[in-house]
Every structure is written in structure tokens, then in C-alpha cells.
Amino acid sequence: MHAKTMEGLIGARTNMELLNTPFRVFKEARLKGDTAMMERAMGYMNECEEDAYEYKEVADEGMKKDAEETRKIAEEQREEMIKNRRTEREEQQKKLEEERQEKLGQKPVDTVEISEEGKVLLKGNAAAESGAAEGADSEIADMDIDAPAKPKADLEPVFYSSAGTVEQLEDAGTKVSASV
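Above: the chain's sequence. Below: its structure in C-alpha cell form.
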């Protein structure tokens, strides 16, 4: 609380309490019919009332200063909060950018291991393709296009675990579907 506000409130209250004494004297003088004493008591009452209003103005001025100071403090706090939020946001953006850069620089790579059966099939497919292109492989050149394709090897599918080991699946009549 501002000093002027306290001074004004205390002064106004004191003068309003002091107003009770001349008012009591005025009542007594009225009962006695003493008009001179009534006029003197009214003069004291007017002085106390004027002083009370002066102190009220001092209190109002002090309250305005209080409000102004409070407004300034609130504005400073608001600006500080905005500044802190901006710095936090910038730090978060920097962290996000660093994470993005790390992700872009270190792209996750999946490795595929080809089993021996797969390598044999791969070599067979590569030889078939190169032989068909050159006309050197007579088996492929003599193939009937309308005949159903024959598998090169009767290989059962192999499933790999996340650790990269081969897993044998028992045929329980279930279907496995995978999506990439």
C-alpha cells in the first residue's frame, strides 16, 4: 500500500471521528437553546469535514499511484513471462531441429540376410535372365509360354525373428499376412 493512501485513509477516519465531538456539543446547545454555541460547534464540524475530504483526496491520489505501480509491475511480469516463453520456444525448436538433423543424418537402415536357398534361387533367376537376353540358355528359350511356371526349387518359406534367427512355424491352419 502506498504511503499517501495510508495517510489519506487514516486522516479521513480521524477527522470523521473528531466530527462526533462538535456534533455532540451542537446537540447539547440545541437542547439548551444556545445558538452561539451551536454556531461555534457547526464551525468546528465544517473544519473537520473539510479536513476529512482533503485526506480523502490524498487517499484517492495514493490509490491512483498504487494502481499505476501495480500496473507497471504486472506489465513487467507479463513481459518477462513472454520473454521466458519465447526463449523456451526457441530452445524447443532448436532441440527439435537437432533431433531432425540426427534422424536425417542417421537414417535407420534395415538389413536383409539371404539364406543359402535364397542365394541359389537368386543365382538361378540371374542366370535365367541373362541367358534369355543372350539366347544362351536353351531351357529358357525352349519354354512354353502358355505352360504354367514350374518352381525352380521346392523350398518352404522361412520366417526370421527380430533377432535374425530362423523360426520354424508349425502349420496350424493359420494364415500369416505381412504389410510393409
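The helical segments are 3-18, 20-32, 35-105, 116-134, 138-141.
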